[in-house]
Write a structure and sequence with these properties.
CATH superfamily of the largest domain: Methylesterase CheB, C-terminal domain
Strand content: 15-25%
Number of helices: 12
Helix content: 25-40%
Oligomer: single chain
Largest sheet: 7 strands, parallel
Structural class: alpha/beta
Shape: elongated
Length: 346
């Protein structure tokens, strides 16, 4: 479904998408309310959504569009995806799967068309549309990996390291919404986002969690109760200096080619904290984090990954679950509830 108040944009996007036999356009509408009305009649996998529209804008309608479409992946296609980092972070936090900057009227086509179809293919295969009232991903998780419950015999937590990508901002929000205020172990976060977005991501986390959230800097001391966020141009690693644990930023090339990457973060956390750490992998494409998770698991640390039904894309968490090294496969809120039952050590 294409939702854009510009008739020209709708026509151009439709022409690009229609040229690929993998896609079918089920509707084109000029506003959010029209999209909501249409979703009572049609089933969709992906919604292309503009932000700036007359009446109800795309950001305001996002949660209801996800609900009415029974979890369709929403790709924000808007000029604000490039010009407004704060708006983009807000959209991703509310549940948008991805964003793509809309080019000027005379700049459609070429490379943009290729990128658009590539994004649609990835998001469309992440979950298929089904009849109303049925789950979007009907295959049982048990058929993919053995599901286990988190252990209750583990000791206190000294550090939590979270990795996420596509769909991760919304999952992180759900996680912190359920994490008890009393939980004050330091938390490291590697979220795949461009460098320019990171200050807005930190600001959004401060506002939504009430916790101190900072973009990590070289040599910064890892503090209790603080959310330390990987900058967009370096891996967030840690190392011990006597009684202190500090940030070490790295730009080494990694197998996933991600920058920042979850793998080096998990590697360093395994070395510094061992079995007193917890690794968490939330929604995301690809396999980033799987190599580092293996090293973290080897220390006896707990590894908790998001389940398939609550993930926008079950690539990163799924790779760890399928490797058999996940302690448990749970929704983000359930992961947070479990951490609350284990106490942070001092």
């Amino acid at each position: 479904m294409i939702v854009d108040d510009s008739a020209v944009a709708r026509a151009v996007l439709a022409r690009m998408i229609s040229g690929n036999p993998a896609f079918e356009i089920v509707d084109q509408v000029a506003g959010a309310q029209e999209a909501l009305d249409s979703l009572a009649r049609v089933s969709v996998d992906v919604i292309l959504l503009d932000i700036e529209m007359p009446g109800r804008n795309g950001i305001a309608a996002l949660p209801e569009l996800i609900e009415k479409s029974q979890g369709a992946r929403i790709l924000i296609v808007s000029a604000l995806a490039e010009e407004g980092a704060a708006t983009t972070v807000e959209a991703l936090t509310l549940g948008a799967a991805d964003t793509l900057a809309k080019p000027g009227r005379n700049a459609f086509g070429g490379r943009f068309s290729e990128i658009l179809c590539e994004r649609l293919m990835r998001l469309g295969t992440a979950g298929a549309a089904v009849a109303p009232g049925m789950p979007r991903q009907p295959q049982p998780l048990e058929a993919l990996v053995p599901v286990s419950e988190p252990r209750s015999d583990l000791g206190p937590i000294q550090c939590v390291a979270i990795g996420a990508s596509t769909g991760g901002l919304h999952a992180i929000t759900e996680f912190f919404r359920a994490l008890p205020d009393s939980f004050d172990a330091p938390i490291l976060i590697t979220q795949h986002l461009p460098e320019v977005f990171m200050p807005f991501f930190a600001q959004q986390l401060r506002g939504s969690t009430g916790r101190k959230a900072v973009v990590a800097r070289e040599g910064m001391t890892i503090e209790r109760g603080v959310l330390h966020i990987a900058p967009g141009n370096a891996h967030l690693c840690v190392e011990r200096h006597g009684a202190r644990v500090v940030v070490r930023l790295s730009r080494q090339r990694v197998e996933s080619r991600c920058l920042p990457s979850v793998d080096p973060m998990f590697d360093s956390v395994a070395e510094v904290y061992g079995d007193a750490a917890v690794g968490i992998v939330l929604s995301g494409m690809g396999r980033d984090g799987c190599i580092g998770a293996d090293k973290l698991a080897a220390t006896g640390a707990e590894l908790l990954v998001q389940n398939i039904d609550s993930s926008v894309v079950w690539g990163m968490p799924g790779s760890i679950a399928k490797a058999g090294i996940a302690t448990a496969v749970l929704p983000p809120a359930a992961i947070a509830t479990h951490l609350g039952k284990r106490r942070a050590s001092r």
